[in-house]
User: Fold these one by one.
Assistant:
Number 1:
Amino acid sequence: MRTVLTFVIGVVFGTGIVLSGMANPAKVINFFDIAGTWDPSLAFVMGGAVITTFLGYRLVLRRPAPVFEAAFDIPSNRKLDMRLIGGAAIFGVGWGIAGFCPGGALPALGTLNSDVITFVAALVAGVLGTRFVLERLAARRHSEEPAT
């Protein structure tokens, strides 16, 4: 049942992304082109998402637990560290250059457009590369720690 619900939620999300035009990189790039062909519609899509999320969290978190889990898994880390800021900056630059965010690119994969495929391949490579580097750094720090 969990897999079916996950699929349905993904289809609803993807449909919303496509219907709002956010799978079209030109629309996204025009949002960032304030001095040129600025298209403010992305702000309305994001505003609607923020309002929906705000209300959804208020409603859902009134429940004692999620339907398919024992407890809610809410992040406890509220620090703004360099990993978060750097990742957000890289995400924003990539979004502005390519016109895709992961949420828009994954539904657009169905178009088999080579730009989308290239973006998703670069996204996967970036995720795997980052994981590799972070694991190597953690292993190096662990090996340099003095024995107690």
Number 2:
Amino acid sequence: MGLAAPTCTYNECRGCKYKCRAEQVPVEGNDPINSAYHYKCVCHRP
């Protein structure tokens, strides 16, 4: 698991009022254990 999280682009974080960070999210939400993961930009509160 040596993958570095990608940097979020301005477009992906446009609606964020707070810190925006790339996080791993399961592709299959209903089967997270066997699912592949991909990165998604998520807004965080400070």
Number 3:
Amino acid sequence: MANKDPLMITDKDEMRKWSRSMRAQGKTIGLVPTMGYLHEGHLSLIQESHKQTHLTVVSIYINPGQFSPTEDLSTYPSDLLGDIQKLKSVPGGVDVVFNPKNLYDYGNNDNGCGVGLDQEGGKVVSCVETGGMGHETWVRVERLEKDLCGKSRPVFFRGVATIVTKLFNIVEPDVAVFGKKDYQQWRIIKRMVRDLDFGIKVIGTELARDDDGLAKSSRNARLSPDDRQKQRMVKMIAKS
């Protein structure tokens, strides 16, 4: 049987007010940050949050700060109504869905992405770097972001660290739960929390896989059968 609908919050100040009122009642809060298009891997993070805290907040926000203008922000999958139904199916449900429209200042650029921003003097920029009065404050975990995925996606981990910092400052959770599928990201968030003295416990959960062995992922869900087979072959070769 489905749980009751979670409280939907879109405003930053309202989200912060809710969290502070719950903490004043002695409640602990868990945060599960997502970009939506939820799958069983995300739902397992919520179950872990239930074990750790009284209340659980799931954020659903496609973060433009981790995309460069040449990447796939405009085609990233989204299904908010489907996500809500999935959240209601989790034993215990969730208490709040934080679904802000925008967490950045885009200056004079209304859509925040891709308007004359593909390159700036040869420097790769993100979808929210507009110059002038646009967003210009970023959080970086310098050494850990350099290798692996950071080599091919130079703005990605900077964008992740910045948006997670924003979510921590808005939701003010006691615990935050991330999947170890994105292992480099999880390590970066743990280091950021340590280095910046956030009073938040960061928990990493084990990888959830589909029956064919591929990690449950919003992007993997969009692969064709042929592409999934190619991905499996790549992983088999890497292990051999």
